[in-house]
Amino acid sequence: MPAASGTARGGIDLGGTKIEAVIVDPRSKVLGAARRPTPTTGGPRDVVNEMLAALRDAAKLAGVKPAELLGVGVGAPGNVDPETGAVSNALNLPDWGGSYPLAAQLSRRLRTGVFVGNDVQVATDGEFRLGAGKPYKSVLGVFWGTGVGGGIVLDGKEWLGRGGAGEIGHTVVMLDGRRCPCGRRGCLEAYAGRAAMEARARKLKDKGAKTDLFKLMKKHDRPRLTSSIWEAAVRNGDKLAIELIDEAVHALGAGIGSAVNLLDVEAVVIGGGLGLRFGEPYVARIAEEMKPHVYVSQPDVQMASLGDQGGAIGAALLAQKARRTRASG
Amino acid sequence: MPAASGTARGGIDLGGTKIEAVIVDPRSKVLGAARRPTPTTGGPRDVVNEMLAALRDAAKLAGVKPAELLGVGVGAPGNVDPETGAVSNALNLPDWGGSYPLAAQLSRRLRTGVFVGNDVQVATDGEFRLGAGKPYKSVLGVFWGTGVGGGIVLDGKEWLGRGGAGEIGHTVVMLDGRRCPCGRRGCLEAYAGRAAMEARARKLKDKGAKTDLFKLMKKHDRPRLTSSIWEAAVRNGDKLAIELIDEAVHALGAGIGSAVNLLDVEAVVIGGGLGLRFGEPYVARIAEEMKPHVYVSQPDVQMASLGDQGGAIGAALLAQKARRTRASG
Fold it and tell me: Using alpha carbons only, what angle is made at residue A258 by residues A253 and A262, rounded to the nearest 5 degrees?
């Protein structure tokens, strides 16, 4: 398939749990994809090695050599410097508290340009330009997973603020409420983030609540309560799991409703590990839970349509944009 | 002062309590100002008559005839159609539930162009272009008064969404919390809006709480608890007033903090009847109450600097903009 040479782009979604890599054609059609678990020990170099391996696997499936790619985009957690491609403060990644020159290291090894953006912003851009947000000019992306991330597109352009915009997970839905993993109180993420929900489930189990959540976790040999474990538990009628997911949906309705009252966007697109796993019926439930809070007109509420690969496909757009900038510069 | 003829503009802030009119020069300097109470009975025609009277008083002080003004801008509550200048659903104004052609009626009587915008957006634009927001490119305006209104400027442009953006008063700060005058639960305005605070004070007094709030109201012959009555009560050490104002400041910290986490603006400008009356020390307190919730960097928090006339001065900018559009159109 040498047709892909010189026109294909790479995209990597660097998550706390997995690394997803894709190769796409000029129309963002996926030509090859691969996935690796994110290392939980070691440091940035080990993470980079797995990113390289995932991208090379995807390139092989697409029949293209990494050096022939127009460029590679990366969606990364933590603080991203979009100019240099350095990533700092990525606390979900092993030993990545400091700054690491991610773009430079990947670029040297892949022998093509590498462009790094914030993971949530990249996923929002993907859904806006290629996915469920395509019919709209203003979109709020909500990524319901380990945390609750948000991305904002206004009048066709991403709004980044001073670089940190979109932190919908730290909307206060309950004054002086539950402690959030971020250390603050009453944040949406304290009720709806998977990490907070796991901590809450563990605490309630220790206090005597009945649940099969942790049995399922062991049975499937997972280090934590993944989205599929939550989904399986709810499907099996596990009371604690149902209660915590209901609470999350209730909090999401308030938090997203508040954001809509402020921004008055045309559409909300819901993705993330839990969002995609629980799917359409829960997206509809979140839309219902928003209604009692929405003061402006209710926007359309859609499920993210690019699926698990959305982050990587969105990241690949960075390479396209960067290339265009270069060509005209 | 015939110098003002042909270059001066008019601005009217139509509030639920008072009508403020100004005449400004091309640099937005106030040449004349007048104020009238908003009629509490009658209908839109009576309100229009008072608006005309206030504008004519201001024009007389400025030494200019209304027909010589470049145009007149109006900041109005309710739903504004910026194209036609019709105002509907202005529930704080007498018998104004339906739609009324405000711009057309005023224009006919004043014999100059009249341009109508949303009161909060007009006040935000005034602070952004002429007041405390001037040094910044992205600003969140928060107007703490009868309700809690918000206006958003991003990258130098007002963000209106589908027309209703900025409803920060209906941010949910307490899931399933106190009933808001809007009928919803847990809104910021249910804790910090002057109307909600008055209802709360009355309820607590009826339950036996001690307070001089209503005595002060009668003494000053006011139909409701105005900002100056709240301020006087707090200054006198009235426990209930202090408790409710503290609660409002606490809720404002959470609601504004949430908005900042989403928008990551450079600055927050705080105005409105209570904001201006309680002034700098309370703006500083609100900034402190934001800090425990702000996930991004804390923005600058400033008091609105155009004062009581800010709404009218901001409204006068509408005439400037509209004129420019016409000239180039």
Answer: 145
Interchain CB distance below 8 Å, B160 and A264: yes
8 A C-beta contact, residue B123 and residue B14: no
- Are B236 and B187 members of one domain? yes
Partners of A293 on chain B (C-beta within 8 Å) are: 170, 172, 184, 187
Count how many domains chain A has: 2
What is the pTM assigned to this prediction? 0.93
Residue B291 lies in a domain: yes
Same domain (yes/no): A89, A149 = no
Question: What is the length of chain B?
Answer: 329
Q: How far is A126 from chain B (nearest CA, A)?
A: 19
Q: Is residue A157 part of a domain?
A: yes
What residues in A contact B250, CB-CB < 8 Å?
175
Domain hosting residue B301, numbered range: 133-305
Same domain, A172 and A118: no
Radius of gyration, alpha carbons of chain A: 20
- Give φ, ψ of B214 to 5 degrees: -80, -25
For residue B26, the distance in angstroms to the closest alpha carbon of chain A comes to 31
Domain presence at residue A73: yes
Q: How far apart are CA B300 and CA B137, in angstroms?
A: 12
Size of interface A-B (CB pairs under 8 A): 135
**Cα B132 from Cα B303, distance rounded (Å):** 7
Q: Is A178 found in the same domain as A32?
A: no
What angle, 0 to 180 degrees and rounded to 10, lies between the N-to-C axes of helices A119-130 and A310-328?
90
- Nearest Cβ partner of A159 from B154, B160, B162? B154
Residue A49 forms part of a structural domain: yes
Q: Write out chain B's pLDDT in tens, 329 residues.
A: 444 557 999 999 999 889 999 999 999 999 999 999 999 899 999 999 999 999 999 999 999 999 999 999 999 998 899 889 999 988 889 999 899 999 999 999 999 999 999 999 999 999 999 999 999 999 999 999 999 999 999 999 999 999 899 999 999 999 999 999 999 999 999 999 999 999 999 999 999 999 999 999 999 999 899 999 999 999 999 999 999 999 999 999 999 999 999 999 999 999 999 999 999 999 999 999 999 999 999 999 999 999 999 999 999 999 986 555 544 33
- Rounded Cα distance between A224 and A273, Å, is 13
Distance of alpha carbon A17 from alpha carbon A11, whole angstroms: 17
Query: Any idea what the CATH number is for the domain that residue A272 is in?
Result: 3.30.420.40
* Cβ contacts of B192 within 8 Å, gap of 6 or more: B144, B148, B169, B247, B248, B249, B251, B252, B255
- Neighbouring C-beta atoms of residue B41, cutoff 10 Å: 7
CB atoms inside a 10 Å sphere around CB A49: 14
